[in-house]
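Hi there, hope your week has been kind to you so far. It would help a lot if you went through both lines with me. No rush at all, and the record is pasted right below:

***
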Amino acid sequence: MSETDKYFTYPDDVDNFGFDWGRLALTTAPEVNGASQFSAGVVFVPPGQGHSRHNHPGAEEIIFVISGTGEQMVEDESGQPDTREVNAGCTIFVPDSRFHSTLNTGDVPMQLFVVYSPTGPEKMLRDAPDFRIIPKEELKAG
């Protein structure tokens, strides 16, 4: 294994964070490859599923829709929700501490690439009541 192998990571190369609404493959983070300024990964959301309204205090987020169709909500500065239909190619910026949610309204899985800056918000996901680890071996077998 070379020193730079950790710079090239696929979603099934890492243990995934599993939830009732889908899963997150954290492919860039301090514990994965030493990233120090941000963390990032791929989110998989099955049809009809989504994550509820939440925020990341002290961190900004970028969401890029790789595939699928859904509704993305981001609250404005006054706390009013702005919900838009999004599909492949859309980039959503979520300002620091802003509440947001995602719902897959399509009939195929939705894939999102997410970036958190600074790193850290993904650690709070471990406190969710439906959180579980999906071992990478299980992903590669399935």
Q: What stands out?
A: Residues 136-141 form the longest helix (6 residues).
